[in-house]
Specification:
Layout: E1 2-5, H1 15-31, E2 35-38, H2 44-50, E3 56-57, H3 74-79, E4 84-87, H4 96-108, E5 112-117, H5 120-127, E6 133-136, H6 149-152, H7 154-163, E7 169-172, H8 178-186, E8 191-194, H9 196-199, H10 204-213
Parallel strand pairs: 1-2, 1-8, 3-4, 4-5, 5-6, 6-7, 7-8
Helix pairs in contact: 1-2, 1-10, 8-10
Bound molecules: SN-glycerol-3-phosphate.
Length: about 220
C-alpha cells in the first residue's frame, strides 16, 4: 500500500488534492497496488470521488454527532466518502484511552484503521487495539530532506515487523525514492507512508510513479 498524507500543506489542498488523487489512482492501476490518499478534511469528498477505494481521513474523534463543535466524529468522514482513517500520527497524538475508544467506533462503522507509532515499544502497545495496519514512523525523520527511515533506521523496520507478525506494517518518515520503498518492503513492511517528498515536489506525479515502481518485484 502506498499512502500519501496531505497533512495541511497548501500544496496539497483544493485542486491539488484532486490531482494527487488522480495520480494515485493511475499509479495504483499501473503497478497493481493499493493507493491511499489522506486529504485535508475540506477535500475529502472530492478526493473520494476520484479515489473511492482509497480516501482516508487524517484523524477522527470518538465524540457523538451533535453538540461537538470543531470535533470530527467518524460518521462525518464516512459520509464524505472515507473508507479508512489514520490515527495517532506523531503530529496528532492521542492518549491510549482515547485511541481505544476511537478505534472501536471507527471499526463499528466499517472503516479501516491504521494506527501510527513512534517507536518499537509504541508499535507493540498499539497492536493491542488490533488495527488493520500499524504505521511506524520515527518522528525525528518526518519531512527529513536528506535521509529516510529506510536509510537511517533499517534495523528498526525489521524489529517492528518481527514483533508484530499478524498486522501489516507501513513505514514512513523521509521516504523519497524507489530505493526507500524497496528496502522497506525487503525488510518486511507492506506499506509506505509519504508526505513531503510528494506534496512539495515540482512534479508530484513523477515521485508517486517512482515510489509505486518500488512495489514491483
Ligand atoms: O504520514 C506520513 C508522514 O508523516 C511522512 O512525512 O514528509 O516524512 O514523508 P514525510
Amino acid at each position: 500500500m502506498l499512502l500519501v498524507n496531505h497533512k495541511t500543506y497548501k500544496a496539497s489542498s483544493g485542486g491539488e488534492a484532486v490531482k494527487l488523487a488522480g495520480y494515485l489512482l493511475e499509479a495504483g492501476g499501473k503497478y497493481n497496488i493499493r493507493t491511499v490518499a489522506c486529504p485535508q478534511f475540506a477535500d475529502l469528498k472530492e478526493v473520494a470521488k476520484i479515489l473511492p477505494e482509497g480516501a482516508w481521513a487524517q484523524h477522527v474523534d470518538f465524540v457523538e454527532r451533535g453538540r461537538a463543535t470543531g470535533w470530527t466524529p467518524p460518521e462525518i468522514v464516512k459520509d464524505a466518502g472515507a473508507v479508512g482513517v489514520i490515527l495517532n500520527h506523531s503530529e496528532h497524538k492521542l492518549s491510549y484511552e482515547d485511541l481505544g475508544k476511537t478505534v472501536e467506533k471507527v471499526r463499528n462503522l466499517g472503516l479501516e484503521v491504521l494506527i501510527f507509532a513512534d517507536s518499537l515499544e509504541e508499535s507493540i502497545e498499539v497492536a493491542k487495539f488490533k488495527p488493520n495496519w500499524i504505521g511506524y514512523e520515527p518522528p525525528e525523520l518526518v519531512a527529513s530532506k536528506d535521509t529516510s527511515v529506510a536509510k537511517a533506521k533499517p534495523e528498526i523496520i525489521e524489529k517492528v515487523v518481527n514483533a508484530i507478525p499478524n498486522t501489516p506494517i507501513l513505514v514512513g518518515a523521509g521516504i523519497k525514492d524507489v530505493e526507500d520503498v524497496r528496502v522497506s518492503l525487503k525488510l518486511g513492511a507492506k506499506g509506505i507512508g509519504v508526505a513531503s517528498a510528494v506534496v512539495l515536489a515540482l512534479d508530484p506525479n513523477e515521485v508517486i510513479e517512482n515510489l509505486a515502481s518500488g512495489f514491483r518485484l
